[in-house]
Amino acid sequence: MSLYQTEHQLTQDAIGVSRQVILKGARLVKLFVTVGAHARYPKKSDWNLHRLECGVLSKLDKDRQKSLTPSIRLMVKLYLRRKLQSEKLIPITVTDNYNLVGALVSRILAYINPFKLACNAHTICDSELRPLGTGLYPIISIINHSCFPNSVLVFEGRVAVICAVQRIPKGTEVLISYIETAGSTTTRQKALREQYFFSCACPRCIKEGNSDDIQESAILEGYRCKDGGCNGFLLRDSGDKGFICQQCGIVRDREEIKKLVGEINLLSEKASKLVSSGFNTEAGATYKMIEKLQLKLCHSFSINLMRTRETLLKIFMELRDWKEALAYCRSTIPVYERVYPVFHPLLGLQYYTFGKLEWLLGDTADACKSLTKAVDILRIIHGTNTPFMKELLIKLEEAQAEASYKLSSMN
Ligand SMILES: C[S@@+](CC[C@H](N)C(=O)[O-])C[C@H]1O[C@@H](n2cnc3c(N)ncnc32)[C@H](O)[C@@H]1O
């Protein structure tokens, strides 16, 4: 999901809804849902809740314990919290609005229907899309999915904000995306069926199987032409011997592709072990080998290649090798622009990272351009008043001041 995603942890819960305001601007419609943040209760009641939670969870058999996702833990916590509140062992806070959570909670409380819960719980992220916890947002939970959504869900602290990223005519349904939308129609449909149990019929998905959709899938998830100078996409030949370039007609042998895929898989296993053991330098070298093989195998707009480069960006940022990080960040931008809509948080954040790296390496003029792009995208999503946006706007102003100073001293 996020470029800098850390391990998913249940560090916060959020329940209840106290207010719903719809603001309509020329391009912006925001549905603000104020969410009941957990008030800090005294240590003793904290302990009461924790003791009960541990007691309940330890009674589950091992298999069930293994399947305890953050969403299920959240439900257990909510259930016990409600119980302790009804027994007056912990205080009810003004934001614990169980009436509004009502039907949703009663249907899925107490681990009765974990699938329904997973469909309705939301991962709370910060403005840089790093996950902070899991929350139950009843109003947000009535919003349906589209792979071409007119809105995005972001969080301001624990407040869930639905922000329009397209003009939404009156009476039109507000839609968000439940999944990572960068992917072929087949991949997106598979994710939606497996995680949310439905087939999507959005404007992107209804094109599944038509020639444009087949071409886009082959570019994003298929192979490159054997001729390095040709940018064609490949489709399986009817005899199933290999894949034919749709531009120049050269056939790529199935066995050769299989061999490359095997080598990449082996290296990927090794690389992810190196990352999890903290051997970043070795991991960087291994991911570079993967990138080299993927450049032979995949189309230049390949999502797999993009993911490898995202990982390399992250590794080189951690190694503080800004030059390498900048190069990898740059290489991801054309693919981001292809796979994400204009006002997508990930695209905005990638421009933000790009601008910061350019600035750090002294390319102030280009940094201004990248930071301006980041602002243009992210202000639609976050407005201009959040701490995150204020920081970005200050950075842009400083970069612009530095660029004009540099220009005037050159003159
Ligand atoms: C978070 S709920 C959304 C609200 C739900 N429609 C309701 O009435 O409660 C998620 C569920 O809604 C349904 N859903 C959401 N988007 C859909 C879509 N585009 N097409 C079909 N079903 C959808 C799926 O059953 C999914 O598991």
From TrEMBL:
GO-annotated biological processes: methylation
Pfam family, one: SET
One term under GO cellular component: nucleus
InterPro entries in alphabetical order: H3K4_H4K5_MeTrfase, SET_dom, SET_dom_sf, TPR-like_helical_dom_sf
Keywords linked to the UniProt accession: Methyltransferase, Transferase
SMART domains (UniProt xref): SET
Residue intervals of the SET domain: 1-179
Domain of life the protein comes from: Eukaryota
One Gene Ontology term of the molecular function aspect: methyltransferase activity
Stored PANTHER family: EG:BACR7C10.4 PROTEIN, HISTONE-LYSINE N-METHYLTRANSFERASE SMYD
Protein name: Histone-lysine N-methyltransferase
Origin species: Actinidia chinensis var. chinensis
